[in-house]
What does this fold into?
Amino acid sequence: MIGLYAEKKTQLSSLSLLLYFPEGSGSDTKLSEISIKDNTVSIEQHDSIVSFLLDQTTMLPSSCRGLLVNSHDELQLTIQYLDTNTNSKTTREHLSDRFTTQTKLIEEITQCGNNVYCCGCGQKLFNDHNKFNRILPLPSENWSDFADMWFCHKHEEEHHDKDSRPNGLKPKPNDCLVGTTYILINSNHIKTDSVSYNNTEVVCNRCGNCIGKGSNSSKSEKEADNIKRIYLHAVMFLSPTKKIQNLLLSSTSQKERLENYLSQLILEESRLFTSFRFIVKSSDSQGKSVQILLWLLDEYVEVFQCQSSNKINQVTSIPSVKVLYRCILSTRGCRVEDKAIYKLWERDNSVHLIDLPYTLSLHLISLLISSSKHLPFSTRQLNGFNVGLLQLQKT
It folds into this structure.
């Protein structure tokens, strides 16, 4: 079995190509002959030939550079290519199509009305005659930190008493407040027979999917009970013309939708706050915490990936976001090196904080680790960080 991994960078019209033998494949690690012609990479080994046909990519063999065999016996090279896709977009055009801004989301919620469904099973979550009088954007999670920069003098003493701090932003009975990862609504919009409440969590009755939680933005217990935070990754907003059954039966799985949601979230946060480094923080009701250090390497890269022993293999590129990451599952039990890097990033004003639900952070870690395991061994780490890919849905 032979593996191919290639990164197609549209801005540079270059292809970083790597050929390797997967772990445990039992293959002879010696390649007899390798040839590149048009869109085909062929590897001859003993009496067999394995060919990889890269979709919509014509390589230019004369532009080959950086050819070497690394310490892991992997052959790597960089080669220029011609894109044969007549409808190909630039990286900037790809990214502008993908940003899910709050403005677009507000328009989507306005159009969908009460057609809000659970991503896991398609259960309708909002009342049939639900209507929002106002749909308004929320500031980012760390808006109060940015507010400190607006003053020319220190004002901590004015708010030394926690009770003197503002209650936070909360919706009126017929309001919907739209954040980057959730919406805040009043509980009277939710169908009582569609959800149940487990402590502070809002759970779908049909599939058990956690779709939200009670809001802690209010000091009043009565107000907190009435205000619910609904996670955007756990629900679907559909226009009246679309049918939920068709969407659930589509080829796009819940995992793919979740991965695309996380990819777009990272890109959107990077664009809004002009940052390429992020601290993802979350904790659950039992005090468990997760911190992820994320470093955005490539906003948009098309990845060819295949492991096969077949004679002919058609390989299609997958648009992805490439990141470096380090996971800290518990600040108490983490390594000294992780704690030092975390404190360094925490003090850096150029690092942006992203607050995610605990379960969503675990999903993010799982997706990143899974992608790292499928990478060639030499590309899995960089400068003490793990390398991960998050897939984007094709437009």
Remarks:
- Residues 2-88+253-391 form one domain.
